[in-house]
């Protein structure tokens, strides 16, 4: 039986593309929500889940930071997908025939220049892959979809224009989640550790808690705060750091962090993706 990797969205979505690129040997399992994708791993329906965590243009993906600590899953890899946007239409349709394009609101906003130049009106769809499916089923040659290559392949649409996004660097970062952690690997491009923590209620707590990373030379690539349970008084921090918890500098930094926190949880230890070396 082929191992499966769960993702949120319809077949052909960019999360599906991430599964296809990072785990081509696995069967991708489409799920309605992020919670469903997580549950598919927990109940054994899938071995892994592919979850988007942040986008270079729009920032963090809503709800993910809150879902990860409670998921019971562990990060075992990261993946990056360059968000290339194509104009998809029924086969044989000339570009001049298109007067409307459907997609998720975010993608429509990323192709303003192209759509304006060709006089194409924007139509809001539920998501990218769903818009491609709608175009294929509607049979209207004047209606196109904005989506990726995989959506065109799945729904039998023709790519009329490739890479029409306004920004050439738009990239989404994904986390690969598993039921069990894997602390044995060492990546060719270094290691990443992701953690969440809550500070003790002391003056300058965050400053003191992060001091160990500076004094031990550990690079923190991401730090975000968010409320827990809608309570302004309960703030949790999400952080990505370079290195492995067994590395002496990281071990010392985490020990110092632990002293200033009420809770500290490592969500995953995984190889750094080579995309981090680009640009």
Automatic annotation (TrEMBL):
Class of the enzyme per the UniProt entry, highest EC level: lyase
**Which residue intervals define the domain ACT in the entry?**
194-271
Protein name per its UniProtKB record: prephenate dehydratase
Q: Which GO terms describe its biological process?
A: L-phenylalanine biosynthetic process
Query: What NCBIfam families is this protein classified in?
Result: PRK11899.1
Q: Lyase: present as a keyword of the record?
A: yes
* Alphabetically ordered keywords of this record: Amino-acid biosynthesis, Aromatic amino acid biosynthesis, Lyase, Phenylalanine biosynthesis
């Amino acid at each position: 039986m082929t191992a499966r990797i769960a993702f949120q969205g319809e077949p052909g979505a960019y999360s599906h593309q991430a599964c296809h690129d990072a785990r081509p040997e696995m069967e991708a399992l489409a799920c309605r929500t992020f919670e469903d994708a997580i549950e598919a791993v927990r109940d054994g329906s899938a071995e892994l889940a592919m979850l988007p965590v942040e986008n270079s243009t729009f920032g963090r993906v809503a709800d993910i930071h809150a879902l990860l600590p409670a998921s019971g899953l562990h990060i075992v890899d990261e993946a990056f997908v360059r968000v290339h946007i194509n104009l998809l239409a029924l086969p044989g349709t000339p570009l001049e025939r298109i007067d409307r394009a459907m997609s998720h609101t975010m993608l429509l906003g990323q192709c303003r220049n192209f759509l304006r130049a060709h006089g194409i009106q924007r139509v809001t769809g539920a998501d990218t892959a769903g818009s491609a499916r709608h175009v294929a089923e509607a049979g209207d040659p004047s209606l196109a979809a904005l989506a990726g290559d995989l959506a065109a392949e799945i729904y039998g649409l023709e790519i009329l224009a490739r890479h029409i996004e306004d920004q050439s660097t738009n990239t989404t970062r994904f986390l690969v989640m598993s039921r069990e952690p894997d602390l044995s690997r060492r990546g060719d491009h270094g290691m990443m550790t992701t953690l969440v923590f809550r500070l003790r209620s002391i003056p300058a707590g965050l400053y003191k808690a992060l001091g160990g990373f500076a004094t031990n030379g550990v690079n923190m690539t991401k730090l975000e705060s968010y409320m827990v349970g809608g309570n302004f008084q309960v703030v949790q921090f999400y952080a990505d750091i370079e290195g492995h918890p067994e590395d002496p500098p990281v071990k010392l930094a985490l020990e110092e962090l632990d002293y200033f926190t009420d809770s500290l949880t490592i969500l995953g230890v995984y190889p750094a993706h080579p995309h981090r070396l680009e640009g």
